[in-house]
Amino acid sequence: MSDTARENIMRKLAAAVADRPAQIPETGALPIPALCQAEKIEQLKHFMQSVRGEVHVVKAKDWVSRLQDLLRPRALKTLLYGPATPHGKILAAGWPPEDPGLPRLVPYAGPVEDFKSELFQLDAGITGTLGAIAENGALILWPTPEEPRLISLVPPIHIALVDAGNIYCNFSDALTAGSWKAGMPTNALLISGPSKTADIELTLAFGVHGPREVLVLVLEA
Amino acid sequence: MAETTGFDFAKNIRHALGDQQLRKNFKFAMGSMIQKRRLIFADEAEFEQLRAIGSAIRTRALAKLPELLARLEARCTQNGIQVHWAETTAEANATVLEIMQRHGATRMVKGKSMVSEEMHLNHFLETRGIEVTETDLGEFIIQLAGETPSHIIVPAIHKNKAQIARLFQEKIPDTPYTEKVEELNAIARRTLRRKFFDGQVGLSGVNMAVAETGTLCLVENEGNGRMCTTVPPVHIAVMGLEKVVEKLSDVPPLLRLLTGSATGQLISTYFNMITSPRRPGEKDGPREVHLVILDNGRSRILTDPQFRQTLQCIRCGTCLNHCPVYTRIGGHAFGHVYPGPIGEILTPQMVGLREAGVLATASSLCCACEAVCPVKIPIPGLIRELRNASYTATPTGRVPGEGFKRNLPETLAWKAWEKVNRTPALNAVVTRLAGLMGDKAPRLGPLKLWSRYRTPPQVARRSLHAMTRAQGVDDE
């Protein structure tokens, strides 16, 4: 069935565009604003906070202890992380083994099939990012085998680490700087805050399916 | 489109106009959506520049459509995504069912997709023993109510929270009545989490497909789209064949236009770009990804250089929000999947003028839709083209059902009008007669109908021509 369908569709499309002169307009592009790092951080903060995301700028060497300070009042039981990532290793090394005030670290160690029931019960997940976008406050994530896709989706709190040097002015800037088209990952994501909906009377509500809270740590050298 | 048999637009409109609650819901919702969009595109010059880019991207994609689809297919296949083609919605449905059966799957979780509405996929699968769960909150609500979307972006906008509270209490076991929106959301979250967990196949639409890299892009705020495309072992994406764009660099401007126009957001909460199924070593994500590319009349629409512009649409729904007709009657009155201005031009082309040509009459031609369209589709112009095509004496095959409205009385009336206006002597006599009658012209037939809600024109006793001449102005 599908082979014939493909042929028929392609034949019709080819005929449809064949006798037209190729009037293809120039696309043009919006200028990419030139922002310094402080401005980029400011914008990221502004847009993230406007949708109830939290942004904390911290010294790179202090982020684990800062994270502990931020998590204590939240009284979480579990924190999901990728144990083989560089930041996962730093996290595990700096995490006290038996502190009742802090969540227990849960490694995303095996395939989701072996782990699904537990995964859907966890309180928070932490991921790195490829950076962020100043223009709209979105985080850029390329999940990896070491840091799978569901860490930033299933637990109700998502903690994201952004290297201050990797904040791009806008999305186009990020695409070019990271030469995305040379090789796209299985899944690339822009995340601009906690999950939300306005489907009931346009009333904004957070945490409908994805995380209710997004906590961003911007790491400065 | 089975459920549209016996579609009576006039009756639907009367019904909608008489529903005060519905009119209140829409008036409020459309008003706020207009405001939100206005804030995002506050800089007029920047918006014009941006939509010139958007329009150019879509025009270019359509001009190269067969080439881009071939490239998309090749890249997707290379990436491990299985590509299927469907000329009709029946073929697309059969493909989806076949994939489900191959996996012995009976439970599907669905992200929002207008193409799946076009396919009437839920009904098709449910009658074949498959449980389909809509997971977008709005879609979930209307699925519980057994209804169809009334808006392409906010599908349950015709319902207020009291109606939703009653619905949840009735349809979801152990659910107390609550009108608190936060609590209603929590109920949906709890109910649907279980569905995501158990879902065997996830289905989604596609907002853009990038030919250059073979990437499927999905725009959403809730996270249900990510759930549907990440948790179940199989992901099926359905897309209209016009959704392809050439390059990755085409994505940012279209994304900005789409979210700004649709919901007044700089960017949606999630922008989900899918390029392959789970690769070796990866711990989650579907092991199979399928892309179903649907024609359903689109290739014919592409043939006509004017009507082709309909396919530039990125389904932001802003033309609905800004339409004075849509705002008063809502989406259901249109009786078809795509309502509002875009529906008025798209539906008649898809299903034919005989079935849906009447939709093109639901416009005051105020041109608000054209003024806000992020890809500059000349909707009012196309509405007029369709109206003309409905009466044409010389069908050209550009749209099915041409000339279906042509009838003797109207043809004669226009012939007479033409004769009167091209024959000066006759014109003078008729003008005089009309002046004598003044406002006493008999209200018969169509004129009676027309003047029911409108003030009929009053013909002056003396024509402007006569008065001007009486003031001493020469005929020349």
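qc> The beta strands of chain B are 81-86, 107-110, 131-134, 201-204, 208-210, 215-220, 234-240, 244-245, 270-274, 288-294.
qc> done
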